[in-house]
Amino acid sequence: MATTDPNLARQFLHSFSRTLEGAEAATRGLRDQGDVRSKIDACRQGLALIREKAERRSTGASSGLESLAAPASASPPPTRDAHDDVVGDAEKGLSRLLAEGESARLSRAEAFGLEVVLLTDGSRPSLFVQNDSIDFAERWNAATAGNWRTRLQARLPRIRDALRSVGRVDLVDGSQRNAIGTAFLIAPNRVLTNKHVLQDIAFRDGGQWRFIGRIEVEFAGELDVRRERLCLVTGVHFASRDAISEDIELAKMDVAILDIAPAGSDPLPPPLSILADDTELVRGAETYLVGYPAVADDALSSEDVRRTFGTAIYGRKRLSPGTVIDGPLTFEDGNTPNRVFTHDCSTLGGSSGSCVLDLFEGGRYAVGLHFGGLKEAGANYAHALQRLRDPLEAAGATYATPRG
Length: 404
Hints:
This protein has helices at residues 8-16, 18-21, 33-59, 80-100, 108-120, 139-144, 148-154, 156-163, 195-201, 302-309, 389-394; strands spanning 127-128, 166-173, 176-187, 190-193, 202-205, 208-211, 214-218, 230-239, 256-262, 273-275, 286-291, 318-326, 340-343, 355-358, 365-374, 379-384, 399-400. With 404 residues, the protein is α+β, with helices and mostly antiparallel strands. The longest helix is centred in the N-terminal third of the chain and has 27 residues, at 33-59.
């Protein structure tokens, strides 16, 4: 069955341009069957690494300090047969794009296969964070970073500072941790996340928010790294008035600010600075997303995600570079002033509350709060933080203007 959004092929071609000759090739997308072959080879290699990592995690060969509870929809490690199916669908999708260009109408399976290619061929990778940094010698990162490696390495000192300030929101039940979403520090003792993340961990009672259990923010949560950096969520400083449903409603503000306190003797990481002027947040602007991807049960491709990636390597801190599709000044989001922009950073099924940061100002400024995506449209959605200035400044956030 064909996808319902005719713009999906154009979005894939735009994203694939990264691995050809850099940004200059943005209008060409795919050149020939040689490009198709190289992308399929990269896809096979990447999927083999995924199988290896998932198998090691599921057998306990690589352990961490924490124990993430298996979700109700937990799946076994992916199989070679499942990966062969994905590769076949990806090859069909690439061939269709090459033959038909932006007019191609992709099947759901072909579209998912192309998403996996984007993750593995260097177009839109999702890199593991370890020890508040990106180790480009780590096998997955080395195989999938592509041309982004040079850009990220040039900004790595500032990126490292930003990575420390993004954490995972956990519901803690004894020794088990259930990953709910992502949050990031915007002020001393305050983190920003989505309203729908808050709705998953708390309920309204007599005008007050009450948590359903012990809620913590883990600022480590990295794959194969044995350490913790925990904070306790102590209250709700702000929550937007809109009730957020499972449907993406762009006119609604999906924003919550939580109060936190250190759970141990270690101090909190520093809060992120927010870019005061978002006029450069336009189509093609390079960004990166930091968060803890999870398999979203309501995602269009959730079953495909489980079958392809398993669940053992989810809930770990990732960095995903990409570009803006439409900035807040040009994207029609159903409200005035517009506060939503779209991006194509890989989110791996669900990255609610993740922080979108700039790569066009050196990699140090927060520019967006990711809140959802529509796979059939090939787009992810984020609130532009400059457009949330009133509640964020009231919470103590700092807006900064780069020098020179």
